[in-house]
Amino acid sequence: MWGLVGFVPFLVLTWLVRTNGALHDLDQAVVDAATAVTAAHPALETALVAWSAITQPGLVNAAGALLALWVWRRHGLASRAAWAVVTLLVSWGLVQLAKESVGRVRPLVDGTFVDAPGYSFPSGHATAAATAAVTLTLLVWPLLGPRARVVVPVVATLLTLLTCADRIFLGVHYPTDVVAGVLLGAVVSTSSYLGYRGWNPTRGRTAPEA
């Protein structure tokens, strides 16, 4: 139930993107300003392009799967690791479905910093980053000490925000695209975890699986 409720902000934003011309104009104005900054600073452009390459959804999901494999093999948290991998894959599938359903074209910019085929809404990079941030933090949560339980979520959040900014400053996504991606990723991960906690066959055991 709560998982479905969590999708409401994403659906509202989707409706606004498809129907509100003023929002689109604001989106385009932000992209214009951001890409002007990128064009004026070649070093920034180089850094943004590099970050875009290493945060491709496929690479993020592969890194998450490797971490899940390590958690399973090293700490024996098999069902938790399987949950994490499935969640990453489900999120990836949902963002592809959303892109095709909305069919929003990418921003119009003067010049192209990176090649970004396909539709714009929601951002696949932002969705993957948010999904990984929440899912992988929850994956390793039982293994973290008190200090790490502060550091890991903060670092995961900062990396997600950096990825969102990267998409806008490269001119391949509107701000609403990345906001939608973060919403989708966070909701999928959280609702998936709530379902996992309700199903988890190791509940009640002394092992850190739960």
From TrEMBL:
It comes from the Bacteria. SMART domains: acidPPc (SM00014). It is found in: Cell membrane. The chain crosses the membrane at residues 49-72, 81-98, 126-144, 151-172, 178-196. Residues 78-193 form the Phosphatidic acid phosphatase type 2/haloperoxidase domain. InterPro entries: PAP2/HPO, PAP2/HPO_sf. This is Phosphatidylglycerophosphatase B. It comes from Isoptericola dokdonensis DS-3.
